[in-house]
Specification:
Layout (H helix, E strand, L loop, with lengths): L6 H4 L14 H5 L1 H16 L1 H19 L1 H10 L8 H12 L4 H25 L4
Helix pairs in contact: 3-4, 6-7
Length: about 130
């Protein structure tokens, strides 16, 4: 039985009965070398500052993937806060793929991330009781 006010009970996160399949540990552990490779790649092309940012963001993703149950519980409890990784991930992705300046990459990342976060916020508050 679900507690009153839990995310699944009030319908703000996952639909009732929705199940998130936990990937096997070996697959989740692949995030660690992937984070290191992406960080190294950006360090060579964009410098130390981007390497530090990439290491922080991808490192948190790798730790979150290894601690899967806690990450899923947090995402269900705080659906909008779990989107906070979207702007830095978009910035890192754009700066890795495009030869533009970092300012242009940041503007593109904001232009991509802002509508997604705004739409998620709207949908979250639209279905909220009260």
């Amino acid at each position: 039985m679900e507690r009153q006010g839990s995310p699944a009970a009030d319908g703000t996160a996952a639909p009732r009965g929705a199940r998130v399949v936990k990937p096997p540990l070996w697959l989740r552990a692949l995030m660690v070398p992937l984070a290191a490779l992406v960080t190294w790649g950006l360090a060579e092309t964009r410098g130390l500052g981007m390497a530090v940012l990439t290491g922080l963001v991808w490192g948190m993703l790798a730790v979150g993937t290894l601690a899967w149950d806690r990450k899923v519980a947090f995402s269900r409890a705080h659906p909008l806060a779990s989107l906070s990784a979207l702007p830095p991930l978009t910035f890192i992705s754009v700066s890795y793929l495009a030869p533009w300046s970092l300012v242009t990459c940041a503007l593109v990342a904001v232009a991509i991330s802002f509508p997604v976060i705004l739409a998620s916020w709207f949908l979250h508050h639209r279905h909220r009781p009260g």
